[in-house]
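Page 47, continued from p. 46.
Same chain as before, 153 aa.
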Amino acid sequence: MASCIAALAVRHTTLPEIKQHGVSAAVEAYSTNAVTILASIAYAPSIDNLHTLILLSWIEFKRNRSGAFCAYAEMAVQMAMDLGLSNDKFALTARNEHERRMLQATWTSISQLNTTSNTIIAIQHPHSLSSVVISRNVAIRFLAPERLLTGHS
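Result:
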């Protein structure tokens, strides 16, 4: 996750070494490192890995790589589902208020990723949107952030 954060933050650097070699090159290096690390842990659903997928999605979005953005967003949505974030009772498993809020913010991020990804697909591939939305909506029909906030439907 640190490489994802670095890839997003490096745009704001004041370090001459990075500016000299190019911010884009630094973003590429940090992003590549994040993807390599994520691939090494393959598919192990966890909140940390989910946060990494969320960050990777937004990195690709900022880099204008809509295909990669949509792919990582879809992986993040699937991992959130696998973790049970869509479950009405999931918020009740939080150990404290801080964790409950973190889970709610994570679910809100997943909802935003899903909406943005569907919008990109609608714009770039309007003929295929209906099947994508139908399949995603079946899988994430409960993608309402307020559900996690209370733990009720």
